[in-house]
């Protein structure tokens, strides 16, 4: 056993694959390889003349997005982007782990670190460097204000600080004055956005403290700062005087300031209450109205227009529907609009009222997005005092923040790719380069779309992802003249233009084919096609759908749902990695069973040679192979089905690291109390050593509700997977 991975000395993995056409062609060379021993499944790399990822779709008929700064490097998990007031020459980018990066519009490639809080920031779960605001008199007053979750290594706190700069161009000497600290009982629902309003006060949005369903009821408890919009005066208090003062018209302004935890009376810092997680919000530059996107629990996402003293309902209400708490709804303010959790929509990212000139149809309309699906909407006034959501663009991005540039145009950050993009008018009518028919993609045989194009290479994986019992066929293709890199973890770095294809069968019936593409700009995106009952035509599904296949409801994921699992932390491509492909495969042409890694090296597919023969390299166990150890099988299952999100940087509220290479103590699961609710289990643990019935991890696997795992893409419980993990937890070799 090596790092809980196993050797590949095992029987052949015979896959059900479609016949690949010719293996000749010279796509990557004559197949000289790098010295690994045969046999090989392919003698040479097939030429790939047709299956190459095109440019990405850029919007609908009127609205599109573009890379605002193509020469800028990718930022590391950008959480906020902004410009200094009156200065259109530079952009500031907050990175989750604590750095504030800056670049000039005239030279975006030259990015510098402007300020660095990485030693102060606790970036676990949803924490990190979350907000920044310039002093209203900046740059004459050389002060900025930052919001971050602090106390790395200890209990998380939310913090707002004043930072005094020695200069605004490239600060060297800074002074931090901590203004406000709030204890965080959990790692999620931190809120964290800050901004100055036109009245000169600093606003600070805080989530309900995390867990599930407002675990402690803080959002409706005004003796706590959590679940609130706060308003404080930091301009009238001049450093080195401590802290802040309370605006005279705050609802509870006469009371004593609130501390980091419980307080005796309603907190004077409170401006509005009843919020779950006000992740992103903004002031309308024309009307001063405060527009806010409040992230929902398991049913609804909502847009609110915040008023002084308003109560926006959580946890009595979730959007327009009843919330988890059976409390009075008297005096609660309904949202302006809400939308359901469906087709990948799961987490609102608040935006801005557009006041630019480039998109006249949007002027005066509030624009916002969903972090999960990537969809961007604008509110449409119905003329009767209500609003509807007008879909502008369906994107593949995980939009973490919007920004209104000094030019009045609307920008956003993609936390996955690290890009800054701009909302623009669609050129050429918003042409979509992704074909509506699978037969037109170049990735299948045009005369028989059930068969792959000749440039596709078949593969299988050692530990397959649970797909509601479907049997899968897998292929990939890279452009001629390119190769695939590997990092130290064994993840593959596919070149731009690459395509990964996966087809799904239920009961022998071909029902879906997915294409995961790395487009020419380096951004990954997923597209899916639905097969007709005759298996002659596969048509693209946009926005996701469900279909009844026998007694089973099959889910076709939306473009945004694809990117919820294909995370940047996991390298996007998931299945193809060294430990997954280190196994035998029955190649149909030339009819040879061979090791996949050896075959790929032999045809010059890798950028660098393998570090040794495959039998000395790591390989994941097959979770269904009872000849392997229970621990190896369980760890392989978690790696494949969970670790794409549950790993450092994976974007989940949990601190678990379920990669197979992570040492057991570092997984942060053994006898660890759950942060996101106990699901009704007494004395629950993420994994309770020897007691699967007390383990929340197993309980979530047994569910397909809002508390279930996986959270999307599955309607059927993996009974074999539940049994495997339960046996491992109950065994002496588990936790």
Describe the structure.
The structure is a single chain. By secondary structure, this protein is mostly beta strands. It has three domains: 10-57 and 432-620, no CATH class; 63-429, TolB, C-terminal domain (Neuraminidase), CATH 2.120.10.30; 621-735, no CATH class. 7% of the residues lie in helices and 30% in strands. The longest helix is centred in the C-terminal third of the chain and has 12 residues, at 630-641. It is globular. It starts with 62 loop residues before the first strand and ends in a 5-residue tail after the last helix. Residues 1-31 have low confidence and may be disordered.
What's the topology here?
Elements: E1 63-67, E2 78-82, E3 90-95, E4 99-104, E5 107-116, E6 129-134, E7 143-150, E8 157-165, E9 174-183, E10 194-196, E11 202-205, E12 228-232, E13 270-273, E14 280-283, E15 290-294, E16 300-306, E17 317-318, E18 321-322, E19 337-340, E20 348-353, E21 366-370, E22 375-381, E23 387-394, E24 399-404, E25 410-414, E26 420-425, E27 444-445, E28 448-452, E29 457-459, E30 471-477, E31 485-486, E32 492-493, E33 499-506, E34 509-518, E35 524-531, E36 538-541, E37 545-549, E38 552-556, H1 559-565, H2 578-581, E39 584-587, E40 592-595, H3 596-602, H4 630-641, H5 696-701, H6 719-730
């Amino acid at each position: 056993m090596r790092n809980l991975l196993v050797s590949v000395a095992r029987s052949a993995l015979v896959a059900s694959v479609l016949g690949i056409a010719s293996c000749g062609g010279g796509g990557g060379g004559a197949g000289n390889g790098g010295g690994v021993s045969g046999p090989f499944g392919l003698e040479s790399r097939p030429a790939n003349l047709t299956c190459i990822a095109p440019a990405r779709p850029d919007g609908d008929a009127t609205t599109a997005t573009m890379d605002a700064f193509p020469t800028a490097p990718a930022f590391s998990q950008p959480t906020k982007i902004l410009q200094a007031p009156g200065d259109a020459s530079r952009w500031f980018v907050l990175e989750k782990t604590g750095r504030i990066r800056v670049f000039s519009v005239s030279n975006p490639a030259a990015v510098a670190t402007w300020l660095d809080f990485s030693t102060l920031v606790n970036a676990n779960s949803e924490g990190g460097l979350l907000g920044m605001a310039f002093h209203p008199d900046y740059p004459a007053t050389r002060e900025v204000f930052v919001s971050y979750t602090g106390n790395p290594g200890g209990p998380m706190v939310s913090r707002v600080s004043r930072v005094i700069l020695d200069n605004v161009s490239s600060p060297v000497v800074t002074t931090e004055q901590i203004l406000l600290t709030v204890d965080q009982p959990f790692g999620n629902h931190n809120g964290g956005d800050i901004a100055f309003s036109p009245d000169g006060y600093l606003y600070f949005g805080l989530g309900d403290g995390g867990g599930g369903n407002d675990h402690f009821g803080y959002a409706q408890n005004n003796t706590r700062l959590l679940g609130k919009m706060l308003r404080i005066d930091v301009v009238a208090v001049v450093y080195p005087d401590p802290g802040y003062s309370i605006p005279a018209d705050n609802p509870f302004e006469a009371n004593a300031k609130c501390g980091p935890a419980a307080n005796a009376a309603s907190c004077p810092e409170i401006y509005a209450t009843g919020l779950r997680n006000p992740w992103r919000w903004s002031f309308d530059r024309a009307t001063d109205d405060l527009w806010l996107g409040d992230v929902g629990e398991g049913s609804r996402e909502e847009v609110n227009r915040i008023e002084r003293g308003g109560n926006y309902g959580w946890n009595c209400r979730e959007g327009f529907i009843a919330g988890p708490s059976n409390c009075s709804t008297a005096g609660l303010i309904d949202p302006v609009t809400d939308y359901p959790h469906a087709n990948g929509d799961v987490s609102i990212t608040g935006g801005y009222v557009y006041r630019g000139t480039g998109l006249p149809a949007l002027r005066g309309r509030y624009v916002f997005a969903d972090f999960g699906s990537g969809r961007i909407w604008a509110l449409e006034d119905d003329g009767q005092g209500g609003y509807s959501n007008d879909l502008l663009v369906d994107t593949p991005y995980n939009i973490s923040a919007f920004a209104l540039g000094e030019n009045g145009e609307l920008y956003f950050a993609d936390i996955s790719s690290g890009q800054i993009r701009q909302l623009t008018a669609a050129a050429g009518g918003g042409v979509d380069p992704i074909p509506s028919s699978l037969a037109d993609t170049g990735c299948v045989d045009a005369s028989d779309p059930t068969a792959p194009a000749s440039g596709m290479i078949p593969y299988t994986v050692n530990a397959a992802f649970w797909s509601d019992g479907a049997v899968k066929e897998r292929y990939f293709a890279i452009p001629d003249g390119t190769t695939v890199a590997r990092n130290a973890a064994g993840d593959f770095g596919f070149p731009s233009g690459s395509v990964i294809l996966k087809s799904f069968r239920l009961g022998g019936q071909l029902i879906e084919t997915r294409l995961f593409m790395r487009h020419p700009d380096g951004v990954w995106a997923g597209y899916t096609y639905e097969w007709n009952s005759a298996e002659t035509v596969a048509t693209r599904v946009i926005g996701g759908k469900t279909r009844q296949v026998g007694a089973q409801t099959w889910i076709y994921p939306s473009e945004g749902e694809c990117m919820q699992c294909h995370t940047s932390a996991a390298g996007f491509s998931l299945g193809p990695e060294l430990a997954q492909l280190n196994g035998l495969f029955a190649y149909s042409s030339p009819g040879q069973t061979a090791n996949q890694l050896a075959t790929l090296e032999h045809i010059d597919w890798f950028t660098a040679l393998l570090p040794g023969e495959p039998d000395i390299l790591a390989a994941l166990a097959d979770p269904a192979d009872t000849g392997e150890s229970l621990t190896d099988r369980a760890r392989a299952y978690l790696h494949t089905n969970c670790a794409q999100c549950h790993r450092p940087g994976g974007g989940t509220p949990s601190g678990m690291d379920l990669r197979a290479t992570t040492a057991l103590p570092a997984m942060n699961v053994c006898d660890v109390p759950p942060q996101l609710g106990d699901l009704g289990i007494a004395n629950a643990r993420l994994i309770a050593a020897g007691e699967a019935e007390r383990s929340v991890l197993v309980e979530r696997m047994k569910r397909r509700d809002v508390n279930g795992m996986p959270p999307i893409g599955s309607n059927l419980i993996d009974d074999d997977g539940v049994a495997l993990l339960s046996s491992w937890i109950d065994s002496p070799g588990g936790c």
